[in-house]
Design brief:
single chain; 9% helix; 29% strand; metal-binding
Length: 68
């Protein structure tokens, strides 16, 4: 995210925290992005030489009930 610039103060010191799901300007403290969703696909190899995609689907109905 270092190529991004804060629209509030012009700082390019942006902290992206994937665990929190946000991007914050370190210059002025503005939250530039929130609810960042990272799309990653992982595969595992099965015993028979095949592969399976690993992940978890979270529907919009589950979003509130799981405390996300």
């Amino acid at each position: 995210m270092s190529s991004k610039v804060c629209k509030h103060c012009g700082s390019s010191d942006i902290d992206v925290d994937h665990a929190r799901g946000d991007a914050v300007c370190m210059g002025c403290g503005s939250v530039l992005e929130d609810n960042i969703i990272v799309s990653e696909v992982e595969f595992v190899e099965t015993g028979g030489g095949g592969s399976l995609a690993v992940g978890q689907f979270v529907s919009s109905e589950d979003y509130g009930s799981r405390g996300y």
